[in-house]
What we know:
homodimer; mainly alpha; Multidrug-efflux Transporter Regulator, Chain: A, Domain 2; DNA-binding
Amino acid sequence: MKGQPKGATIGGLAVAAGVNVETVRFYQRKGLMREPERGYGSIRRYGEADLARLRFIRSAQRLGFSLDEIGELLKLEDGTRCDEARTLAERKLVDVRQKLIDLQRIELSLTQLIDHCVASGGEVACPMIASLQEAT
Amino acid sequence: MKGQPKGATIGGLAVAAGVNVETVRFYQRKGLMREPERGYGSIRRYGEADLARLRFIRSAQRLGFSLDEIGELLKLEDGTRCDEARTLAERKLVDVRQKLIDLQRIELSLTQLIDHCVASGGEVACPMIASLQEAT
DNA sequence: CTTACATCCGTACTTGAGTACGGAGTCAAG
DNA sequence: CTTGACTCCGTACTCAAGTACGGATGTAAG
């Protein structure tokens, strides 16, 4: 009933997610990733869930969330009490929606710049900054 | 023809943008903000454009852009040669669109969590991680 | 059984993004 | 014309997020 090794080693996990082994261990110390039990005296094994979690962390980071904030998002995944989760989710949602607005504005600026570039021949300027002015 | 002082001092600028004076100076050193000429022997003055630029930098940071990337975005604002600008804009656009997709997925997860929370009474878990799984 | 390579773990180093500090210069009010 | 607050500038410190190092242990292949 014990069969062959169940999952990837930390090295395999790290490669699969495109991060450094040390980074995984760092996230474990921060409490963002679990440390699987090591079946007697041995080496830890990681599964799909660990990989997904690790990838989530990296994606969320690219979106400008700090590791502490990501920890909060992961608390939602991990199941907290309902009212608590809801409050947290609502706070995060406000933040996320503001980011969406800003990103959409930047997207628009960039597409317009590209269009103008195609249309004109020479110098162009992009109202990049104006794109984020408060639109009232 | 020289009138009264033209704009805000660095302190005023910093307060208006909600950042530290030192931060402004730091951005100047990095080349993200200009250092206005100081009319004979005196103190620098900043205008609306400087404030907008500073605010843009902070917003872009919240979206997960590094200061180096923000420098690139600002090159577009500042007007580069057309083909160069276009190439850069196209690269950034890919990045921005991926961020939009990820953020939209997170937004959906959060709203669903909130809905479930309202509907059920007790424990809830949020498929936060699943929300960013590659959907193909 | 040895040997090569990975894990484990603690500690130390690095990098990006600021923050803090301190002395010298500036400027407006009293 | 002094005084208090602010600017200027260089240098040094801090904090988050890793990265690197190195000795001890585990483990699979020859």
